């Protein structure tokens, strides 16, 4: 999901407020016509002359020429912090040549990049999706791209499709959460625009539930655009499981097969490789050019997190099922797996059953400790616009999950969630939801939340007594 510029910030005319004395860069005051206006006219952060530099002052004396800095292929390229299931975020370190080669190649093949394409990835540029598939991959291919900062729902819920028509976007890449958000408003806002230029649609970031997939395919792509459901991670640098458009027969909700050079395996708890249709831990058996090289400043943590549980394999931390046709289906993070009375359940599977109900726009499921069953299912549901939550709907949703998956998956709690705690990249922070389900107020670091006010609201609406 995209960074939100508040309406006020977008609409405040330059110079309509006076900069507070001593807080702003002096240059901002003298250079009213400057183009860098993000913090203007009032800087959002206090100016610290020891560390802050003013853009205008710097560019004034800068040369138009910039000699390249020659580097070794294994020199560090960037560090991107990603949350770990325990402890502080990990600084994922990528290096120059492998990352460039991998993002360039996956971009070219997975989006079937052609010289006359117009490509648009809606991700936040500070997220790995933005690094790999807004900057490196497309730029290395000389692609024409749309860069967008804004919301898919502002000024109205047709915004995405308006932009697609305006710039003749042919390859479009977004997250399931954005698709589910737009699905809530139905087909009409999509049909307002023609979208004839679209050729390939991509998704990334989380398992896409079959309903959202179908809506994306049928309504947005009008059944003529292949969907590339790309599975990858900050750590993998680029796509590792993905269809190739028009070449790979699709199955809604499956990231299909490995990209060239990637060798997946599915392991059981004892680390044995499973053959044929099976479910277990998704691991990779050999490196590929874009794989992370280390956790910055902590090689030991790199080895512990990714290589210790199953020596000789890279452990993704995701659960995965391989079906009878060899397709891979991500079942969610292993740490999102629930164990209810000895049965392993995937949160994604329960969420999908809930979202199939017409009243539900989005769902997030977490485990809540249960004295007898080990864990019980605590479900947060965001309803389709205009609907209200009531006991009948709650019973209906429980019945739906029971019918779709089985009695063992019957939710114990269903809570109305007008909003879900999400990072700026649109990822639901299940860690926070687990705390809400247990009424634990110590949430740890929630600075990456896009809107922390939803958390208070969810605590107020809790629907069950403490155990
Ligand atoms: O659980 C998988 C999920 O996102 C995780 C990686 O998150 P992050 O490092 O923030 O990178 C997100 C953008 C690449 C994975 O471990 N994930 C990502 N893509 C998919 C997915 N789960 C299912 N299907 C996907 N296509």
From TrEMBL:
PROSITE patterns named in the record: AMP_BINDING
Chain segments carrying region Disordered: 1-42
AMP-dependent synthetase/ligase domain residues: 48-294
InterPro entries linked to this entry: AMP-bd_C, AMP-bd_C_sf, AMP-binding_CS, AMP-dep_synth/lig_dom, ANL_N_sf
Broadest EC class assigned to this enzyme: ligase
Keywords: ATP-binding, Ligase, Lipid metabolism, Nucleotide-binding
Gene3D superfamilies: 3.30.300.30, N-terminal domain of ligase-like (3.40.50.12780)
The enzyme's E.C. designation: 6.2.1.1
Residue ranges with Basic and acidic residues bias: 1-10, 24-33
GO molecular function: acetate-CoA ligase activity; ATP binding
GO BP term, example: lipid metabolic process
SUPFAM superfamilies, per database record: Acetyl-CoA synthetase-like
Entry GO CC: cytoplasm
Family per similarity comment: Belongs to the ATP-dependent AMP-binding enzyme family.
Name used for this protein in its record: acetate--CoA ligase
UniProt organism field: Notothenia coriiceps (black rockcod)
Gene assigned in the entry: acss2
